[in-house]
Amino acid sequence: MHMNADQTLLVLASASPRRRELLAQLDIRFTVSAADIDETPHAGEAAEAYVGRLAREKARVVASRHPGAWVLAADTTVALGAELLGKPRDAEEAQAMLTRLSGRTHDVYTGVALAGRHEETLVVRTRVTFRSLSPGEMSWYANSGEPLDKAGAYAIQGKGGFLVAGVDGSTSNVVGLPLGETVALLERAGLPLPWRAS
Ligand SMILES: Cc1cn([C@H]2C[C@H](O)[C@@H](COP(=O)(O)OP(=O)(O)OP(=O)(O)O)O2)c(=O)[nH]c1=O
Fold first, then answer.
1. Domain ranges in the chain?
2. ipTM score of the complex?
């Protein structure tokens, strides 16, 4: 992609097909350029601070490659109390995460950052309650392949829907991009939106 000085150009700094689909559903025009950053949490870093920091770092890395454009980035993590559950390395770790989540309520945090003429970061929390899962359910799902690239080892939008007893808050936030808050963020920056004349 070549440089573009157009202030209405939006770049999504993400390799996640979920974020791409969520944004595309709203007919918002954007290009994609993934940021590869170190996602190791700092010692004692709380979930809210962690996802905000990672979203900001992703947005800044891609903004430096696209001067003049607006860059949107996000990061999602699952938090069970003070414990952060990122993407499981394998089916065994997925199973361990599902065992922790079974029969309990956890928080899903997504940090969203917009970088361009100015910078803004927000963090959205959704509470998700899991059913009490049987060993057979956990083992089948852990080995289904679906948990591997998902924070907390499940996809609410996929087969993982059967694990969930209830959701309190934004569902798109769980999938990786809180649509209501993201639209408000783009609106504040003056980006053109399909329902608003630019
Ligand atoms: C809990 C949950 C997470 N997820 C996904 C959303 C995110 O893509 C992923 C968390 O990983 P992230 O590190 O937030 O995102 P990513 O590595 O997929 O993409 P990028 O950093 O390039 O933007 O987990 C679901 O799809 N469904 C769910 O129910």
1. 10-188
2. 0.94
Q: Which residue has the higher pLDDT, 150 or 2?
A: 150
User: Residue 163 gets which letter from DSSP?
Assistant: G
Interatomic CA distance for residues 50 and 75, integer angstroms: 9
pLDDT at 1 over 50: no
75 flagged as catalytic? yes
32, 150, 179: residue to mutate for ligand 1 pocket, most atoms within 8 A of CB: 150
pLDDT tens profile 7-36: 569 999 999 999 999 999 999 999 999 999
Active-site hit among 6, 27, 75, 149: 75
Phi-psi region of 171 (alpha: psi -120 to 50; beta: other; left: phi over 0): alpha
Q: What is the pTM of this model?
A: 0.94
Q: Is 47 a pocket residue for ligand 1 (Cβ < 6 Å)?
A: no
CATH architecture of 10-188: Alpha-Beta Complex (3.90)
CA 183 to chain centre: 15
